[in-house]
Design goal:
- With about 130 residues, this protein is of the alpha+beta class.
- It is about 40% helix and about 15% strand.
- It has two domains: about 10-60, no CATH class; about 70-120.
- The protein has helices spanning about 10-15, 70-90, 95-100, 110-120; strands spanning about 30, 40-45, 45-50, 55-60.
- It has a four-stranded antiparallel beta sheet with strand order 1-4-3-2, with no helix packed on it.
- The longest helix has 22 residues, at about 70-90.
- The relative contact order is 0.10.
């Protein structure tokens, strides 16, 4: 188990490094550090995440050298098409409202359209 306890001095050293000079082999938990408490997002080569009120720091994932299978590339292509489809409908206010009327409380138009597209359902609109 990897245990990094970030104190302010260590954090300042890490943040002053260039992204290429930093290597964190695992996810580190930041405890009792008011600087990064509740911080989320990416800062340089560091990624800050929050889980159940605890802040974790990890290195940015490097996926450049990952070879994707044909099935993965097809899935990425289909998802990109789903995003284009959903985005086009959400931009058209009349179509967006038509979809929203069919949804249950708490469901979002964009997410529903992507889900439907990935399952092969494409809505037809008149006009």
């Amino acid at each position: 188990m990897c245990k990094h306890l970030f104190n302010e001095q260590y954090l300042n050293e890490v943040l002053s490094l260039k992204p290429s000079g930093l290597y964190l082999p695992c996810m580190a938990e930041s405890r009792n550090n008011i600087i990064v408490r509740g911080l989320s997002g990416m800062l340089g080569n560091l990624v800050f995440k929050n889980y159940n009120g605890r802040t974790f720091v990890s290195q940015k994932a490097n996926t450049r050298k990952v070879k994707r299978t044909d099935k993965q590339r097809k899935g990425e292509f289909n998802f990109a098409n789903a995003q284009r489809y959903a985005g086009a409908i959400v931009k058209d206010e009349a179509k967006k409202q038509a979809v929203a009327k069919t949804l249950k409380k708490g469901e979002r138009v964009y997410n529903t359209l992507i889900s439907e597209f990935m399952r092969g359902v494409v809505r037809k609109f008149e006009g």
